[in-house]
User: Fold this.
Amino acid sequence: MRKFRIMSALCALTSAGVFAAHVQAQEVDHAKADAEFAKFRAEMEDSNPAELFELKGEELWKAKRGPNNVSLAESCDLGLGVGKLDGAYVLMPRYFKDADAVMDAERRVVWCMTEKQGFKFDDIAKKPFASGNYTPEITSLVTYVAGHSRNKQFAVNLKDPKVREIYETGKEIANYRAGPYDFSCNTCHGSDGKRIRMQNLPNIGSKEGATKSVMGWPGYRMTGGVMLTHQWRMNDCFRQQRFPEPKYASDTITALLTYMTANANGVMYKGPGIKR
Amino acid sequence: MDMLRRTVLKGAGATGVLAGLLAAGVLKPTLAYANDWNKAAFEAKELDAALKALGAEGAAEHKDLVMKAPEIAENGAVVPIDVSSAIPNTASIAILVLKNPSPLTSVFEFSNGAMADVAVRLKVAQTSVIRAVAKADGKVYSTQKEVKVTVGGCGG
Amino acid sequence: MADPMKIRAQLKGDEAVIRVLMSHPMETGQRKDGDGKTIPAHFIQSITVAVNGKTVVSGQTGGSVSRNPVFGFKLKGAKAGDKVAVSWIDNKGDKRTDETTVA
Assistant:
């Protein structure tokens, strides 16, 4: 189909700052492309390489590791009791009394690794996300934890005032404009029907949009073939907005994840997914 | 039909022997495999050369050789392709991406109850025809489909 | 050491559907890293599927199979409890074998 060749030509044009081809972009049959992508996704999800990282995460979860030589299985409480995994991911972010903080899943596992196993935070934060052939242990662990909430509903507890407070903070952050482009998350993700070329941009303030934003994380990214967490996605949004990169496992990211996940409350989580 | 000549790895018994040799350090696995892997076919830059190296020239279309492939692939790094053959005695299936720098992606030989049915995920560098070539009773058959590869966002 | 594979072998009627996920970079040898240096070729060249010790599929692969490869095969006349073993060897001589049973 010639339309797609036009599409890639358009890509080059817009990056060169020429927008004359704009009208042609509308010729692309997005409904058809979306349907085709959806079919393709279903096939990809049927055998998702993310499972390989769950396997790796299981090994790491159960192994006695770190200076304290304890396993996460025997020391880490994800909110449902020490070592309890089933359904824990969809209840996070949640408030953890022992840390006196609201934490998302990745942040919580990092906390367990430092507080229980004795790893140094700075070592984990040095290279916290996958690139090339490198996958951090934390990514496999989070994938393993998330895999234990397949087919369970997101249920972030907004009745907890501490969670509510972080949720409201997240809402504000999503709307906070800054950086050289005077962008906020909501510039792209705050209203319905927006799109960058072939990709639809979900409105994270709506239930439907929030669902699209939290579903499939952690995700196996076809581009580069790497496993990435929702924390990574948030950091990458900051990069795309030309904001300074957030500190790893920061309050800001937890707040955004609380806002988005709670907006998807009641939706069934399908487990670690596939991303483009 | 020596498309996949297996001098060393013939059946499970031989595999066991090979494993023993490997463990004993008698054979280096790379050596064992260098003999086996069809270098000429995989490194061929042109379709014709690849088919020649596979001994699979002059294929005829056959309705019982079926390929499932997305019409539009979301990401060329991972394109799911499914090929199945209902042609009796199909011994092997090869899958080639015509516009890739080296067209041959993979070739599979079936025996002992395996159906001539294989699913793979391939890198497709650009919009290209994908061709499957099957061998059955010494004859060569083929089928093909075009897969369009898009980029999602610029530099995406 | 190569990471384990994930193998699924499900019975559907008298057919077994075998799905294999492998952990492998599948480098073509044509990509360049951030410094412009060519990343050496590193890909699986050979895979075998054996059922109860008998080879049923032997395959050869090149660098254009996707990273972290996924393969699907079908087996006629399979029954629950059949042992499925999958092996691969790459161009550097790394190898891995994993097993599962048809269920």
